C-alpha cells in the first residue's frame, strides 16, 4: 500500500463514512469528494452531484473553472461538468444536496480550519436566485475551494450505479490532470 493510499484511508476514516468519502493527497494539492448526495439521487436522474474540495498547499497558484473537471470511467467515457443553465432547468434537489454534504464539509473544515486555511465556494452551480455563477477561481498557498459539481450521465445514474470512476481536475493552463479515484453509490442506494 502506498503512502498516499494510506493517507487517503486515514482521512476518509476521520471524516466519516468511507463508502462515500474519497481523498487524494499528493504533493501540493489535496482533492476530496463525497458521493452522499449522489446516493440519494433517483436512479433515473441524469444530473449526478459530487461534492468536491480542492486545497492548494503549494507555492504556485491554480485556476479552477467548470471546464477543469471531468468524470472518467474505465470504459473510456469522459463526462464534463454540466452547464449552469441545464442545472437550473433540470436539478430540483440542490437544497437536499447541500444538507447531505454538511457533515463532510464540517469534517473537512475541522481538519483544515480557517485560519490558517482560507476557503471559498466554487459557486459554479449556485441557486437560481443566488450569487452569479463563477467563471473561475484562483487558489494560492493555503487556499481551498469547495462545492458541488454536477455531471450528466446519459441514461441516468442507474447506468453507472456502483461504478468506479476518476474525477479528473485539470486547472486552467496546466497540461497535467490531478486524479481522484472514487466509486459512485451502488444499487442499494435509493
Describe the protein.
The chain has 190 residues and is an alpha+beta fold. The protein has helices at residues 3-15, 36-39, 84-90, 94-111, and strands at 21-26, 29-34, 47-56, 62-64, 69-72, 78-80, 118-121, 137-139, 143-152, 164-169, 178-183. It has a 5-stranded mixed beta sheet with strand order 1-2-3-9-7. A 4-stranded antiparallel beta sheet has the order 6-5-10-11, with no helix packed on it. A two-stranded antiparallel sheet has the order 4-8. The longest helix has 18 residues, at 94-111. It is globular, with a radius of gyration of 15 Å.
Provide the descriptors you would attach to this structure in a database record.
11 strands; 4-stranded antiparallel sheet; 5-stranded mixed sheet; single chain; 190 residues
Write the layout of secondary structure elements.
Blueprint: H1 3-15, E1 21-26, E2 29-34, H2 36-39, E3 47-56, E4 62-64, E5 69-72, E6 78-80, H3 84-90, H4 94-111, E7 118-121, E8 137-139, E9 143-152, E10 164-169, E11 178-183
Parallel strand pairs: 7-9
Antiparallel strand pairs: 1-2, 2-3, 3-9, 4-8, 5-6, 5-10, 10-11
Give a nutshell description of this structure:
By secondary structure, the chain is an alpha+beta fold.
Q: How confident overall, as mean pLDDT?
A: 86
Strand residue content: 25-35%
**Gyration radius, rounded:** 15 Å
Identify the quaternary structure here.
single chain
Q: Indicate the structural class.
A: alpha+beta
**Helical segment count:** 4
| Strand tally | 11
Helix content: 10-25%
Kindly report the spatial arrangement of strands forming the biggest sheet.
1-2-3-9-7
Apparent shape: globular
Query: Main β-sheet, in a few words?
Result: 5 strands, mixed
Distance between the termini: 33 Å
Low confidence ranges = 1-14
- What is the H/E order? HEEHEEEEHHEEEEE
Amino acid at each position: 500500500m502506498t503512502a498516499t493510499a494510506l493517507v487517503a484511508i486515514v482521512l476518509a476514516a476521520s471524516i466519516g463514512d468511507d463508502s462515500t468519502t474519497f481523498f487524494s493527497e499528493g504533493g501540493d494539492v489535496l482533492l476530496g469528494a463525497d458521493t452522499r448526495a449522489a446516493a440519494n439521487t433517483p436512479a433515473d436522474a441524469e444530473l449526478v452531484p459530487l461534492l468536491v474540495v480542492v486545497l492548494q498547499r503549494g507555492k504556485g497558484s491554480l485556476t479552477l473553472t467548470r471546464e477543469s473537471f471531468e468524470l472518467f470511467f474505465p470504459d473510456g467515457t469522459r463526462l464534463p461538468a454540466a452547464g449552469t443553465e441545464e442545472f437550473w432547468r433540470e436539478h430540483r434537489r440542490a437544497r437536499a444536496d447541500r444538507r447531505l454534504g454538511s457533515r463532510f464539509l464540517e469534517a473537512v473544515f475541522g481538519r483544515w480550519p480557517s485560519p490558517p486555511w482560507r476557503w471559498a465556494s466554487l459557486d459554479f452551480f449556485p441557486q437560481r436566485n443566488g450569487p452569479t455563477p463563477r467563471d473561475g477561481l484562483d487558489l494560492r498557498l493555503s487556499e481551498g475551494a469547495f462545492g458541488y459539481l454536477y455531471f450528466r450521465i446519459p441514461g441516468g445514474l442507474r447506468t453507472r450505479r456502483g461504478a468506479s470512476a476518476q474525477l479528473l481536475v485539470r486547472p486552467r493552463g496546466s497540461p497535467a490532470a490531478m486524479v481522484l479515484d472514487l466509486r459512485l453509490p451502488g444499487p442499494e442506494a435509493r
